[in-house]
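quick one, 260 residues, struct below
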Amino acid sequence: MKRLEEKSIYVIREAYSKFNNIAALWSTGKDSTVLLWLCRKAFFDEIPFPVIHIDTGFKFEETYSFRDKIVKEWGLNLIIAKNEEALKNGMNPEHGRFQCCNALKTEALKQCIREHKFDAILLGIRRDEHGVRNKERFFSPRDENFEWNIWEQPLEAWDIYTIDEEADHYRVHPLLHWTEIDVWKYIKEEGLPVNPLYFSRNHRRYRSLGCKPCTSPIESDAKNIDEIIKEIEESDIRERYGRVQDKENLMERLRVLGYM
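---
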């Protein structure tokens, strides 16, 4: 845990020193909550940059409640990013999962980056989550169209991260080297707060969190972190099995266009 934490804090501090205007993306999920905790550790219990929450309008009530609670307790400078025009025009999952995710998540993030002129965004993604995310780098450049060139990525050797001045902005991934079990073990070790949707109710829980219409629970009796870890160790089901983006193979198409 200590080595994982140290590398993540190193990446966070490197990003803070290399870029002029950064922010952290927070979904209220386990990974991005760990990311915020690491940011606090990196800067002595304060996060010296904004935290972005992308609000699609279709998230679980527990997610909104957890978000507001942590914002108050941790004193976060929260930016709520919404694609108001798309929502006003009736965008929802019935228009198609790809179209909805792209409009309410990807475009909302793009709008936020443009409005605030961020040159880097910290995200809590991990390589083991998905095959596409396994192709990522710690410092990942995006062009003026927010697109990710999956075939031409920077070499990262000996923890040296070079910045391409021609890139529009960077996505920085301090948890890229962690696994799902690492995250849960760290949450237990640090005593971190967790979105209650991760714990079993009526023999079902959510292993990966997204929007309510597009996220399905798994069968589970895991009511605490030890039981969640044991369940993951014994499972042969993918972490994001309940997410529509994975079932419909949308992840690579969305990420190339600027998705998280």
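The chain is about 40% helix and 10% strand.
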